[in-house]
Amino acid sequence: MGQKINPLGFRLGTTQSHHSLWFAQPKNYSEGLQEDQKIRDFIKNYVQKNMRISSGGEGIARIEIQKRIDLIQVIIFMGFPKLLIENRPRGIEELQMNLQKEFHYVNRKLNIAITRIAKPYGNPNIIAEFIAGQLKNRVSFRKAMKKAIELTEQADTKGIQVQIAGRIDGKEIARVEWIREGRVPLQTIRAKIDYCSYTVRTIYGVLGIKIWIFIETLIVFPFYPLMQQKGGNLFILFLSNQKFLILLILNSLNSIGLNKNLIDLLI
């Protein structure tokens, strides 16, 4: 089933986190979800209209929404935010005002922040937009996929799989073409895999683009027996691709010897 299920939802709680952070009553939950989707669609439409398009690879990686009773915080993660800010210096303020008018936020404050992601071409949404731009310009689909793989390799990823489905190159019969470079372990839950499903409209019809990017593997250490004996919490903090920090906070104060053993294990 690892081949069929959405890789992001399959890994929630391990290597993936939610993009919407809020709580609501069960009867109001569906309204909150619809509101989040409308906010994301509104922001994407605004960016598409006002961004200075150059190579077709500058887009939105993800939009995180955090809600409180009196505040809605929207964080837009972009690959190349300068292209939007340089074109419209007051674009963020204008977007914020338009959102407040559209959704009638009177008693709730709305904040919008733009964050640049470190490696844009390691994000599947930006890669999918790049391929879509190439297909709209009638570039060969194989050439577009190979170029996308080259860009992804520059972001130090461990593997990528690209799939295009539909009337490719205007053929009468729809088909599926895919290419893979490196490893993409879809059935390994501790493998951090980013995924994107994107549609592009061409003169021949609609094409579906799917991107899987294998970033890294979550390393699990057998420290749980120690936690059960002494009591405490285990935290794994990832610092970079291969560097991580493990913190074991114990409830017992007389645990100096155990901490020393942990340090020896980490070395």
Automatic annotation (TrEMBL):
Keyword presence, Oxidoreductase: no
Organism expressing this protein natively: Lancea hirsuta
Residues annotated as signal peptide: none
SUPFAM superfamilies listed in its UniProt record: Prokaryotic type KH domain (KH-domain type II), Ribosomal protein S3 C-terminal domain
Family, per entry: Belongs to the universal ribosomal protein uS3 family.
GO cellular component, one term: chloroplast
GO molecular function annotation: rRNA binding; structural constituent of ribosome
The UniProt record lists the keyword Cell division: no
Entry keywords, A to Z: Chloroplast, Membrane, Plastid, Ribonucleoprotein, Ribosomal protein, RNA-binding, rRNA-binding, Transmembrane, Transmembrane helix
PROSITE patterns referenced in this protein's UniProt entry, alphabetically: KH_TYPE_2, RIBOSOMAL_S3
Subunit structure: Part of the 30S ribosomal subunit.
Domain KH type-2: 43-118
A Pfam family per the record: Ribosomal_S3_C
Source taxon at top rank: Eukaryota
Subcellular localization, as worded in the UniProt entry: Plastid, Chloroplast
Transmembrane segments: 203-227, 234-253
Alphabetized InterPro entries for the sequence: KH_dom-like_a/b (IPR015946), KH_dom_type_2 (IPR004044), KH_sf_prok-type (IPR009019), Ribosomal_S3_C_sf (IPR036419), Ribosomal_uS3 (IPR057258), Ribosomal_uS3_bac-typ (IPR005704), Ribosomal_uS3_C (IPR001351), Ribosomal_uS3_CS (IPR018280)
The protein, known as: Small ribosomal subunit protein uS3c
Primary location class: plastid
One example of a Gene Ontology biological process annotation: translation
